[in-house]
């Protein structure tokens, strides 16, 4: 199996050509972006503490290394990687909170870390674990503040709020003090507050973290609809693969701060895990020598079917043989679960 | 811009009410020292007839006015901003297309002030009835006090904010704050009216901004200043406001750069 998932050529050979903005350039262009943190490095204990007081040792942490990509208007891109891979650091640079060590980025024609008002008015960063709403008053008050801060006209505000209300069902929850809201309700309000000014670029860092499955699904549906209605460009990080599968056709994988893969999600599956899962339910016998057809996975799926892992290009032939030779009552062919694919992608870039 | 301040005011006013018990505690704590000085100096002056020419009534009038002036001109930026810098929450404010200190923190200060003033009113009235100072207020002096108080608050707000921004570099900003407060109390005329300080300290006080933010407005309200002194003090207020603004801007720029270098 191919151990190196992506290299610089893979990054340039993007399958989806970005849709171009009005000025002929994609809204997000990142070139050779790097961020190195200096952190003090010392061992534990009193002696080491005294020593480091006089002579500090610094260790350089390369959080992001020479990352380049372009994202077209209206694209939703999943930003994947294990914890500490550099995802949040990249998003913070793109939203202007961090100065890069080197490299460049242009978002909507602005250099993000100059933090020009024009840029700040046309983008948003949502971090699942941060709150931007005033804690002790209803979210509606924070919305009105944002209306003033972002200079949203009365008409636009009414329309934006109506739309967000339709999609997120904000109705009763915006009138309760924020501290009395559940996590899911608060997240809805956070999203609404971050989107009232209709940003055309959205950076979403774990927008569904800590939410129950139902709430996750609603946020997801909302993002998809927002993207469709406004043609917004979205970069999203998430640990929930369901988010990625539902929203992103394209994913960017970074690991140890380096770009490992940039391309279609299905393309990633084909490359990393070029196999299919055949689930069968046989009448009569429990395991009629299924090992002969492929790798038998341990256990059964939720409907009690046995699962076989086979190479993708052999799947049709094996299926035909199974149907001919076994008392098959039910059979399905599926792609491997995306969690497995991503897991493999991370591991393989580790071993690389 | 006006709309932003109006919304911020509504929000901060509502929030301050949520914390009115905290605020009352803060107010009572803050009241202790001026009331003690008021009691001590009036007693001393009464037993001796006067101290350096200041009578018991002079002291009573001075501290009664100080109570109001200090609330109007002091600032609480460090309490609002330092925690946000240290826990990284400032990021949220940096994402907004307005200056977080010159909008949100400023209005927060003013809302706190307004509520404090309301809480002080009954206490002030009780003290007034107790000490019965002759205040000799004039409409002209009160009118002149309005710009003096606004300038004084501007200076202290910008200086206090600049000092709070040191939190971008060190977690020990509170030690610095305590030192700053002590210097302020001495040279602003908080411990004693400046006339009672040794001449050397009086000279230093003139070179520092603090006397122009507390001592000057008090003396102005009490009608102790001639036209020339007034003009000089107003002039110094403008100079210090400009300087404080420059100091604040430079610190802010460098601080945000530091914040975004180490990981916002």
Can you walk me through this structure?
The complex is a heterodimer of chains A (352) and B (264). Chain A is an alpha/beta fold. The radius of gyration of chain A is 24 Å and the shape is globular. Chain A is 35% helix and 26% strand. Chain A has helices at residues 8-12, 46-54, 87-94, 117-120, 139-149, 154-168, 183-195, 213-230, 241-247, 265-272, 315-325, 338-351; strands spanning 28-40, 58-71, 76-80, 102-107, 123-127, 201-205, 233-237, 250-255, 258-264, 275-282, 295-300, 306-311, 328-334. The model of chain A is unreliable at 1-22 (pLDDT under 50). In chain A, strand 6, helix 8 and strand 7 form a beta-alpha-beta unit. In chain A, the strands form three sheets. Chain A has a six-stranded mixed beta sheet, with helices on both faces. In chain A, strands 11-12-10-13 form a four-stranded antiparallel beta sheet, covered by helices on one side. The longest helix of chain A is centred in the middle third of the chain and has 18 residues, at 213-230. By secondary structure, chain B is mainly α. Chain B has one domain (2-261). Chain B has helices spanning 2-18, 20-48, 56-73, 77-86, 90-94, 101-131, 139-164, 173-188, 199-207, 210-213, 215-221, 227-262. The longest helix of chain B has 36 residues, at 227-262. Chain B is globular and about 60 Å long. At the A-B interface, helix 4, strand 5 and helix 5 of A face helix 1, helix 5 and helix 12 of B.
Q: Which whole number gives the mean pLDDT of chain B?
A: 93
The helix content of chain A is 25-40%
The sequence of SSEs of chain A as H and E is HEHEEHEHEHHHEHEHEEHEEEHEH
Fraction of residues of chain B in helices? over 70%
Q: For this entry, what is the oligomeric state of its chains?
A: heterodimer
- The counted number of beta strands of chain B is 0
Tally the helices of chain B: 12
- Work out the radius of gyration of chain A: 24 Å
Largest interface: A-B, 32 and 25 residues
Rounded to the nearest angstrom, the radius of gyration of chain B is 19 Å
Percentage of β-strand residues of chain A: 25-35%
How many strand segments of chain A?
13
| Anisotropy-based shape of chain B | globular
Mean pLDDT of chain A: 83
User: What is the CA–CA distance across the termini of chain B?
Assistant: 27 Å
């Amino acid at each position: 199996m191919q151990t190196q998932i992506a290299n610089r050529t893979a990054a340039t050979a993007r399958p989806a050509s970005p849709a171009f903005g009005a000025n002929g350039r994609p809204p997000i262009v990142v070139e050779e972006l790097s961020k190195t943190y200096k952190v003090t490095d010392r061992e534990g204990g009193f002696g080491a503490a005294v020593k480091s007081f006089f002579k500090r040792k610094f260790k350089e942490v390369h959080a992001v290394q020479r990352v380049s990509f372009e994202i077209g208007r209206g694209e939703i891109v999943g930003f994947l990687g294990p914890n500490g891979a550099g995802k949040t650091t990249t998003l913070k640079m793109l939203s202007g909170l961090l100065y890069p060590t080197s490299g460049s980025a242009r978002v909507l024609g602005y250099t993000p870390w100059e933090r020009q008002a024009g840029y700040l008015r046309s983008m948003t960063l949502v971090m699942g674990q941060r709150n931007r709403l005033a804690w002790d008053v209803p979210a509606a008050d924070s919305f009105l503040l944002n209306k003033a801060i972002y200079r949203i006209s009365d008409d636009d505000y009414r329309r934006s709020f109506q739309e967000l209300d339709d999609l997120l069902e904000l109705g009763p929850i915006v009138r309760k003090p924020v501290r009395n809201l559940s996590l899911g309700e608060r997240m809805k309000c956070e999203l609404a507050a971050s989107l009232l000014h209709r940003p055309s670029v959205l950076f979403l860092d774990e927008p569904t973290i800590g939410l129950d499955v139902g709430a996750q699904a609603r946020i997801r549906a909302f993002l998809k609809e927002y993207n469709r209605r406004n043609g917004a460009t979205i970069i999203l990080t998430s640990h929930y693969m369901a988010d990625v599968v539902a929203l992103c056709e394209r994913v960017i994988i970074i690991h140890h701060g380096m770009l490992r893969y940039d391309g279609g999600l299905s393309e990633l599956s084909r490359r990393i895990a070029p196999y299919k899962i055949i689930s069968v339910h046989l009448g009569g016998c429990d395991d009629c020598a299924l090992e002969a057809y492929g790798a038998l996975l341990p256990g059964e799926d939720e409907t009690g079917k046995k699962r076989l892992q086979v190479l993708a290009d052999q799947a049709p032939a094996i299926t035909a043989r199974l149907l001919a030779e076994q008392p098959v009552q039910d059979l399905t062919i599926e792609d491997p679960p995306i969690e497995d694919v991503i897991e493999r992608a991370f591991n393989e870039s580790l071993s690389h | 811009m006006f709309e932003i301040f109006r919304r911020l005011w509504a929000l901060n006013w509502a929030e301050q009410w949520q914390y009115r018990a905290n605020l009352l505690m803060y107010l009572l704590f803050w009241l202790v020292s001026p009331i003690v000085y008021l009691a001590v100096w009036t007693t001393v002056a009464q037993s001796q007839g006067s101290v350096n020419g200041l009578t018991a009534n002079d002291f009573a009038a001075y501290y009664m006015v100080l109570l109001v002036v200090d609330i109007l001109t002091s600032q609480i930026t460090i309490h609002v901003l330092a925690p946000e810098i240290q826990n990284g929450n400032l990021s949220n404010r940096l994402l907004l297309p307005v200056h977080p200190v010159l909008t949100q923190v400023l209005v927060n200060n003013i809302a706190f002030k307004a509520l404090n003033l309301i809480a002080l009113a009954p206490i002030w009235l009780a003290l007034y009835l107790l000490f019965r100072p002759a205040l000799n207020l004039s409409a002209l002096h009160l009118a002149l006090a309005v710009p003096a108080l606004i300038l004084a608050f501007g200076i202290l707000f910008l200086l206090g904010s600049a000092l709070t921004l040191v939190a971008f570099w060190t977690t020990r900003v509170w030690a610095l704050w305590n030192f700053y407060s002590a210097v302020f109390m001495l040279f602003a005329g908080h411990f004693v009216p400046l006339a009672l300080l040794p001449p050397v300290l009086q000279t230093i006080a003139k070179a520092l901004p603090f006397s122009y933010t507390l001592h000057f407005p008090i003396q102005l309200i009490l009608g102790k200043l001639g036209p020339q002194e007034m003009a000089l003090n107003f002039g110094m207020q403008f100079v210090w406001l400009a300087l404080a603004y420059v100091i604040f801007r430079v610190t802010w720029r460098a601080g945000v750069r530091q914040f975004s270098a180490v990981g916002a």
